[in-house]
Amino acid sequence: xxxxxxxxxxRSVMRALGDWTVTGTSFRRTSQRLVTVDVTSKEEVLRVLGxxxxxxxxxxxxxxxxxxxxxxxxxxxELNVDAAWLIAGGARHVEACLLHISSDYVFDGxxxxxxxxxxxxxxxxxxxxxLLAEDAVHSACPDATVLRLPVLYGPAEYAxxxxxxxxxxxxxxGAEVELDDVCVRYPTHTxxxxxxxxxxxxxxxxxxxxxxxxxWSAEQGFTKHRMALMVAGRFGLSTxxxxxxxxxxxxxxxxxxxxxxxxxxxAALGWPAHRYRMFGDEFAQVVEPWLRSACP
Length: 296
Ligand SMILES: NC(=O)c1ccc[n+]([C@@H]2O[C@H](COP(=O)([O-])OP(=O)(O)OC[C@H]3O[C@@H](n4cnc5c(N)ncnc54)[C@H](OP(=O)(O)O)[C@@H]3O)[C@@H](O)[C@H]2O)c1
Fold this sequence. Notes:
Layout: E1 2-3, H1 8-16, E2 24-26, E3 34-36, H2 42-52, E4 56-59, H3 66-71, H4 73-93, E5 97-103, H5 125-140, E6 145-149, E7 152-153, H6 163-173, E8 177-180, E9 188-189, H7 190-205, E10 213-215, H8 224-235, E11 242-245, H9 247-251, H10 263-269, H11 279-292
Parallel strand pairs: 1-4, 2-3, 4-5, 5-6, 6-10, 7-9, 8-11
The structure holds NADP nicotinamide-adenine-dinucleotide phosphate.
NADP nicotinamide-adenine-dinucleotide phosphate binds at residues 4, 6-10, 26-29, 37-40, 60-62, 64, 79, 101, 103, 149, 151-152.
C-alpha cells in the first residue's frame, strides 16, 4: 500500500510496484486507481489499513512546499509528523512492514557527506518536522525503515511540483530572475528513488534484516543557477535574464550542502553503475513539456 500515491514520488513508486497488488491513496487528486484517505484522520487510516491488511506500507505523504510551512505550519506539522505517526501505528497494528520517506533536510548542510548515523540538526521547520517524524515512526513502529532522499525531479503534473520544472519555467519565461548559486542540491530522479523503495519493500517482505535508516541520492551536485544554465544550454535559450545570487544561502534556513553518504544502501543493493540515472542525461526530458507550454 502506498500512502500518497498521487504525489510526485508516490506516482513513481506506484509504477515501480506495478506488477504487485498495490493500493495507492490520494487526498485532493482523485482517480479510479486510488482510494481517497485523509491521513490526518486516525479513523480513516485505521479503517483503510484494517480492510486492506497490506503486507508492506510505503508512506509518501508529506508537505514539502516552503509557502505552506510559512503560511499553514499547523497543517504542515499534521501531514509531516502526526500523519507519519498514525500510519506507523496503523502499520504495526496490522503487522505490515513500513517504509517511511524522509529528507536530507534533517541535516544542517555544514559538514557533508552525511552518514546515516550522523547527528541531525535541521535548520528549518520542514527539516525539524521530518526529524520529529523519523522519531515518531520509530517509536510507533520500531522495525520501520526510514529512507532519506534529497531533492527529487521527475515527470511533473504542474510546474511548481519540482524545483527543476520551476527553474525551467523561469528560464523560458525570460523575465529577470536571480537564482541561488551557493547551496548545492543533488537532484535525484523519482523513478530511481522508486526502484530503491521497491528493493527495500521486497527485502522487508523476505524478512531480511534491514537498517532502521538508509540514504539514497544521486552523486552529482548542482546549484539552482547551474541547473538553469544547463536547461538554457540544452534548449538554446538565452541566459541574459538569469543572475547568480545567494538568496537561499543568505536566508539562513536553507542548508548549504546535505550530500548523503549512500555507501550502505549502494553496497546492499549491489546495483551496476549503468542503472544510476545521471541528471545530465535525464533533465531535458523532464523539463521539455514546461518549456513549450505557458508555465502557470
Ligand atoms: N519532492 C522532493 O523533492 C522530496 C525530497 C526529499 C524527500 N521528500 C519526501 O518524499 C515524500 C513524498 O514527497 P512528494 O514530493 O512526492 O510529495 P507531494 O508530491 O507533495 O505528494 C504528497 C502526497 O500527500 C498526499 N496528501 C496530502 N494531504 C493529504 C491528506 N490530508 N491525506 C492523505 N494524503 C494527503 C497528496 O495527495 P493529493 O495530492 O491527492 O492531495 C500526495 O499524494 C515526502 O515525505 C517528502 O517529504 C520529497
